[in-house]
C-alpha cells in the first residue's frame, strides 16, 4: 500500500516539476496526434460531404465500409503500415519506418474513417433539410459542400475532436511502426506500457494522469461544442 501511494506522490511531483522526460513524451504525443487529425480532417471532411451529396453506384457499400472502418483494429493498421514502409515494402525507400512520420500515417488511417463517416451523416442530414431551398437557388451539390460544411461546423468539430481522442489514446499501431524508441518515437501510451513493464510506476502514472486530463479536456470541448450547436439550432 505504501508503494502504491509513493508512486502517486512521485507521479504528481514529476508533473508539478515539469519533468523533462515527461514533457518530451507528452510533446511528441501531441505533435503526432494533432498532425494525424489535421491530415485526416483535410481529407475526411470533403470526402464525407461528397459521399453524402452524390448518388453513385456502390454508394451504399462505401457508406458501410466507412462505418465499419471506424472500428479498425489498431494493430492491424500498424501491421499494414509496417509492411508498406519496411525495406521490402513499396514505400521502403522513403525510410520512414520507426519515425514520427510513420506514426502520423498510422494514426491518420485510424482517424480518417471516423471523421469521414461522421461528416457524411451530418452533411446528409443538413442536405435533407436545405435541399429544396438550395436547389431552388440553382446550387449544385458541389457548390453546396462549403455551405453545408460551414453550417455544420459545430457538429463537424465534434467529429474532429472524436478523432483526436481516438488518436491520443491509441497504442497498438504506433508501437508497431514507431518502435517506442526513447527520445524519438516514445509517446504517452507506448511509454506507459513500457514503464509499467519495467516497474517504473511513477513515470507511468504521471503520463497516465496527463493522458486522462487530455482525454477529459477533449471530451469536455466536444460536449461544450455540441451544447452550443443545440442552443443555436433551438
From TrEMBL:
Subcellular location field: Cell membrane
Biological-process GO terms, alphabetical: transmembrane transport
Domain ABC transmembrane type-1: 26-222
GO cellular component, one term: plasma membrane
Membrane disposition: Multi-pass membrane protein
Key words, A-Z: Membrane, Transmembrane, Transmembrane helix
InterPro entries: ABC_perm_TupB-like, MetI-like, MetI-like_sf
Main location: membrane
Keyword Membrane: yes
Highest taxon in the source lineage: Bacteria
Listed transmembrane segments: 30-54, 61-85, 97-118, 156-181, 201-225
Entry protein name: Binding-protein-dependent transport system inner membrane protein
Organism, as annotated: Oceanibaculum indicum P24
Amino acid at each position: 500500500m505504501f508503494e502504491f501511494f509513493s508512486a502517486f506522490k512521485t507521479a504528481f511531483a514529476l508533473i508539478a516539476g515539469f519533468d523533462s522526460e515527461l514533457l518530451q513524451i507528452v510533446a511528441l504525443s501531441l505533435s503526432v496526434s494533432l498532425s494525424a487529425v489535421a491530415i485526416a480532417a483535410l481529407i475526411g471532411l470533403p470526402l464525407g460531404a461528397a459521399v453524402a451529396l452524390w448518388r453513385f453506384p456502390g454508394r451504399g457499400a462505401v457508406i458501410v465500409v466507412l462505418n465499419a472502418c471506424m472500428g479498425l483494429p489498431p494493430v492491424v493498421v500498424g501491421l499494414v503500415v509496417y509492411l508498406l514502409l519496411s525495406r521490402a515494402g513499396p514505400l521502403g525507400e522513403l525510410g520512414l519506418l520507426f519515425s514520427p512520420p510513420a506514426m502520423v500515417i498510422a494514426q491518420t488511417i485510424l482517424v480518417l474513417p471516423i471523421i469521414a463517416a461522421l461528416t457524411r451523416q451530418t452533411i446528409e442530414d443538413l442536405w435533407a433539410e436545405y435541399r429544396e431551398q438550395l436547389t431552388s437557388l440553382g446550387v449544385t451539390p458541389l457548390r453546396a459542400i462549403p455551405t453545408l460544411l460551414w453550417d455544420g461546423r459545430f457538429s463537424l468539430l465534434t467529429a474532429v475532436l472524436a478523432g483526436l481522442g481516438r488518436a491520443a489514446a491509441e497504442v497498438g499501431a504506433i508501437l508497431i511502426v514507431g518502435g517506442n524508441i526513447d527520445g524519438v518515437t516514445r509517446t504517452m501510451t507506448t511509454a506507459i506500457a513500457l514503464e509499467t513493464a519495467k516497474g517504473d510506476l511513477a513515470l507511468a502514472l504521471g503520463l497516465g494522469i496527463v493522458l486522462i486530463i487530455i482525454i477529459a479536456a477533449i471530451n469536455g470541448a466536444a460536449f461544450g461544442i455540441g451544447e452550443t450547436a443545440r442552443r443555436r439550432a433551438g
